[in-house]
């Protein structure tokens, strides 16, 4: 129970950081490029706890992202849940201890999320410049998100270790 409450607090805090404080960390060359903390959370929980927790993280984080942005409800939920399922299924088949593997997985997940999100937006508004969105925001944002992966994963690991008691095994 305590672990689930901590998980919900982390997801909600990341959503709040994404829309408030992270706005100050935009890359100067692009204007709208931000790291995607929800992708980081989805990948972290898919690696550490499996596809179910990753999909719940994607659903809660996507709902939070949909409510705080002016997009159609379900747009971000779909993207994050698909990423959570795929990454969770793949994580059992990968050696994911090395930070480069984690950053690569985050890069691929960010690109997939960006392509899915852009495709959904383009289907809803065909006159929208989808290729410009991909080139100006999705690809740089994916690299930016992958760049901060080791730091965010370390912070999450420390938080979860500190506030979640270790399970004692009987000898």
In words, what does this structure look like?
The chain is mainly α and 171 residues long. The chain is built from seven helices and no strands. It has helices at 2-19, 37-49, 51-68, 75-91, 99-124, 130-147, 149-163. Helix 2 (37-49) runs parallel beside helix 4, helix 4 (75-91) packs antiparallel against helix 5 and helix 5 runs antiparallel to helix 6 (130-147). The longest helix has 26 residues, at 99-124.
Q: Could you tell me the strand content as a percent range?
A: under 5%
Mean pLDDT: 86
What is the string of SSEs from the N terminus onward?
HHHHHHH
Spans of at least 5 consecutive residues whose pLDDT stays below 50 are none
Number of strands: 0
Number of alpha- plus pi-helical segments: 7
- Percent of residues in helical segments? over 70%
Question: What structural class do you assign from the helix and strand content?
Answer: mainly alpha
List keywords for this structure.
171 residues; mainly alpha; globular
Layout of secondary structure:
Blueprint: H1 2-19, H2 37-49, H3 51-68, H4 75-91, H5 99-124, H6 130-147, H7 149-163
Helix pairs in contact: 1-3, 2-3, 2-4, 2-5, 3-4, 4-5, 5-6
